[in-house]
């Protein structure tokens, strides 16, 4: 019997050791509320969880793959609201805890650009009462890391009283919950908002900024604008659709998945890793998928759950090594012999050829998918919900080894998408906007 129990003990030890739900952050997690605080030593800031240093290696995640995040060795994710419409805050935190991850929990704060009036004292008070209930419900959850009060409240606003409301919410949270710090996120970074935060939001523990193409400027701007406290980057990733060149008819040109991945690594090194004094970590955007200008622009996963090359980059950032199998890379992609930067114009119902050239490090066999979508007409700001365009039937389609022959659709503005699948849950992708006369 003793020998049998010994063998069972070894099996249980091996099972726990190989459990994919275990991460390096799990040593800081128990079943009690985590004590999270910001410490400063010799002008260097760091986050402590139960007394242990915790550098945030995270991703923005609302409906994304939590298990994959843990498997790639992240230690945290952030949300934008306590109830995302599919899962409650408790369910989100429970799943995070199951995988040894901690959550910077978003709190929905009304935006002036959506019609909220911060001069309306009754409305502001009702919002505060609603938030109090949300905080009380989950404040003692062991997976809770930080409270994120609102998202990009500086986007298209004019009333500085929003910052008074943020500070009041932060004070309330600290009274209810002494264990977790507070922050609010800014779209970009500007002197005016830094001044407002310093003057009106003295109760906040951390500043959060969200930058894309200009991410490498963040450490310099933080100091230039006089922010002397800790900060984190709560959104960063692909070059924004407002930052890229456009076609002659105004369609923003999306970078292919390989160029995106290269930029993720470059920007992380220059805009996050470069600041070892004030930056306490970051959340890449987006660990999942969403329609925003296109269905491929911001998510590091595709709609079918396949990983893009940017997931491999995050694996490298979080582990120091590349994944065993790499995503197919886009070497070139042309339509009618032209790239997206040539403002491709076609004539209706004529036959055209598109060609993509793929490089795969392991020389895996590649399967190709093609799709034509009308240019999105429902263009929102600040990440608000957009409807995905309905695909167009590809007439006269012939495809072989990355070469597509097809007939152009009816007059209008479109995008031709290609997806290259290596059979290992990875896909490279690119698209070319085109106009049909």
From TrEMBL:
<dbReference type="Pfam" id="PF02836">
    <property type="entry name" value="Glyco_hydro_2_C"/>
</dbReference>
<dbReference type="InterPro" id="IPR017853">
    <property type="entry name" value="GH"/>
</dbReference>
<protein>
    <submittedName>
        <fullName>Glycoside hydrolase family 2 TIM barrel-domain containing protein</fullName>
    </submittedName>
</protein>
<dbReference type="InterPro" id="IPR006103">
    <property type="entry name" value="Glyco_hydro_2_cat"/>
</dbReference>
<feature type="domain" description="Glycoside hydrolase family 2 catalytic">
    <location>
        <begin position="70"/>
        <end position="217"/>
    </location>
</feature>
<keyword id="KW-0378">Hydrolase</keyword>
<dbReference type="GO" id="GO:0016787">
    <property type="term" value="F:hydrolase activity"/>
</dbReference>
């Amino acid at each position: 019997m003793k020998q049998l129990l010994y063998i069972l003990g070894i099996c249980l030890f091996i099972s726990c050791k190989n459990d994919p739900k275990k991460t390096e952050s799990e040593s800081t997690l128990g079943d009690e509320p985590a004590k999270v605080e910001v410490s400063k030593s010799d002008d260097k800031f760091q986050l402590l969880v139960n007394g242990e240093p915790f550098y945030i290696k995270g991703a923005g995640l609302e409906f994304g793959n939590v298990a994959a995040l843990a498997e790639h060795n992240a230690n945290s994710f952030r949300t934008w609201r306590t109830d995302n419409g599919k899962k409650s805050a408790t369910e989100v935190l429970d799943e995070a805890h199951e995988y040894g991850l901690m959550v910077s929990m978003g709190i929905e704060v009304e935006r002036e650009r959506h019609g909220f009036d911060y001069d309306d004292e009754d409305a502001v008070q009702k919002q505060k009462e609603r938030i109090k209930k949300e905080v009380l419900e989950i404040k003692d959850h062991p997976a809770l890391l930080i409270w994120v009060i609102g998202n990009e409240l500086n986007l298209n606003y004019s009333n500085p009283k929003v910052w008074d409301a943020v500070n009041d919410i932060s004070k309330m949270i600290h009274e209810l919950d002494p264990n977790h710090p507070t922050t609010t996120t800014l779209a970009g970074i500007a002197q005016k908002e830094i001044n407002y935060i310093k003057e009106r939001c003295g109760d906040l523990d951390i500043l959060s900024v969200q930058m894309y193409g200009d991410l490498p400027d963040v450490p310099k701007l933080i100091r230039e604008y006089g922010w002397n406290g800790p900060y984190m980057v709560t959104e960063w990733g692909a070059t924004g659709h407002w930052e890229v060149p456009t076609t002659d008819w105004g369609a923003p040109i999306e970078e292919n998945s390989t160029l995106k991945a290269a930029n993720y690594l470059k920007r992380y090194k220059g805009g996050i890793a470069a600041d070892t004094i004030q930056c306490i970590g970051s959340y890449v955007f987006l660990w999942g998928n969403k329609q925003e200008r296109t269905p491929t622009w911001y998510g590091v996963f595709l709609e079918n759950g396949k990983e893009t090359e940017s997931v491999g980059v995050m694996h490298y950032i979080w582990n120091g090594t590349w994944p065993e199998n790499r995503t197919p890379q886009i070497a070139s992609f042309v339509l009618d012999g032209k790239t997206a930067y040539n403002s491709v114009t076609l004539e209706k119902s004529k036959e055209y050829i598109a060609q993509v050239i793929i490089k795969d490090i392991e020389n895996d066999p590649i399967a190709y998918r093609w799709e034509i979508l009308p240019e999105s007409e429902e263009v929102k700001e600040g990440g608000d919900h957009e409807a995905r365009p309905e695909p167009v039937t590809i007439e006269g389609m012939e495809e072989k080894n990355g070469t597509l022959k097809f007939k152009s659709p009816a007059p209008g503005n479109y995008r031709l998408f290609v997806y290259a699948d290596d059979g290992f849950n990875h896909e490279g992708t690119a698209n070319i906007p085109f106009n049909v006369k």
